[in-house]
Recover the amino acids of this structure.
């Protein structure tokens, strides 16, 4: 019997969200060069990371930039969680919104521990904050947060 109960249709990736680096063009914190940031950085210090939507684990891998990263597939949409210290899921696992999927960390190209969060629709990166805001607005009448 499954003991996980879905608490939300859309969940936030962390218990509380503080943006430390925005989406889009910025000067890179390490190189100082103009850089296109494909996601958003949230303050996180080895905190639990949650799946934002129901989905399937498409990859759990390690790259020099993002460190340990989890890519979740939600139809044509992907959410990506980077710089993790520990994954709590495995490839092809089914996850539900609000399920703990990882512990954040400081792996990859970082100055300090934080969570990198990207939202990709097909091949395009979306602004994750706009995405979360829009989707929370749509489901607002169906649930309480
Ligand atoms: Zn980032």
């Amino acid at each position: 019997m499954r003991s996980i109960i879905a608490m939300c249709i859309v969940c936030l990736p962390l218990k509380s969200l503080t943006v430390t680096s925005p989406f889009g063009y910025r000067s890179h914190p390490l190189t100082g060069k103009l850089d296109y940031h494909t996601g958003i950085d949230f303050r996180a210090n080895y905190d639990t990371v949650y799946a934002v939507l129901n989905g399937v684990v498409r990859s759990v891998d390690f790259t020099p930039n993002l460190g340990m990263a989890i890519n979740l597939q939600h139809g044509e949409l992907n959410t990506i969680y980077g710089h993790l210290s520990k994954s709590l899921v495995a490839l092809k696992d089914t996850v539900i919104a609000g399920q703990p999927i990882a512990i954040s960390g400081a792996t990859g190209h970082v100055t300090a521990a934080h969570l990198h969060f990207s939202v990709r629709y097909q091949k395009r990166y979306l602004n994750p904050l706009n995405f979360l805001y829009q989707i929370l607005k749509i489901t607002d009448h169906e649930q309480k947060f």
Observations:
- Residues 19-122 form a domain with the Glucose Permease (Domain IIA) fold (CATH 2.70.70.10).
- The first strand starts at residue 19 and ends at 21.
- The mean pLDDT is 89.
- Helices lie at 128-139.
